[in-house]
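Follow-up to my post from last week.
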Amino acid sequence: EVQLLDSGGGLVQPGGSLRLSCAASGFTFSNYAMTWVRQAPGKGLEWISVISYSGTTIFYADSVKGRFTVSRDNSKNTLYLQMNSLRVEDTAVYYCAKRSPEVAGSFDYWGQGTLATVTS
Amino acid sequence: DIQLTQSPSFLSASVGDRVTITCRASQDISSYLAWYQQKPGKAPKLLIYAASTLQNGVPSRFSGSGSGTQFTLTISSLQPEDFATYFCQQLNTYPITFGQGTRLEIK
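User reply:
Got it. Predicted complex:
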C-alpha cells in the first residue's frame, strides 16, 4: 500500500525557516517524480514544486522560487522541502504527492498534509 | 500561466441527481487534465486523469470528457459520499495549475 507521511510543519515567524519531510513507503520511491502542493486556509490548491525521480530536474512556482528548495534522498525514501524567508502568505497545509508515471502524470497519491503557520 | 476556470463554483444537488462540472483552460492543454475530489480536512483524491481515464478504485458513476480547452466532470447519480469540493488541474505546462474548485453540497 502506498503511503506518504508529511511532517515538519509548525509555527514560525516571518523571515524564518522550516524543513518539511515526506516519508514514502509501499512503492519504489526512486522510480517516481514527486511534488509539493499547498493549500492556504479556506483556499484552493497551489502547486509549488516538482522533482524528477533522480533529483536532477526541478521546477518551482514563481511564488516560492529562490526561497524554497526541494530535494530527495532516495536511500531514505524521503522527499524534503526547505522553506526559507517565510512570509505570512506562506501559511498553508503542505502536501507531498507522488506523480504517476505517464507523460505529464497526475498526482495519484497524497500525504495527509502538514500545517505551516507563519505569524508574528 | 495557464488559467483554469471552473463552473459553477458552488452547486447544490440531491442524492441521485446527475451533475456536471466544467473546467475551461485559457489555452490548449490537449488532454493533460486531471480531476480531484477533496473532503474537509483531507488530502485531495485523484478521480480522473488524462481528461477521461478513471483512476483505479474510483466508482464508475464518475466520468470525464473533453480536450483542448473545454473539459467536464460528470457524476451520473450522486451518492451521499460525493458531497465534497472538486478541482481540475492542468499538467500540460509548468507551472502546473488548478481550477478554483467547485463545492458540491446537499440540497
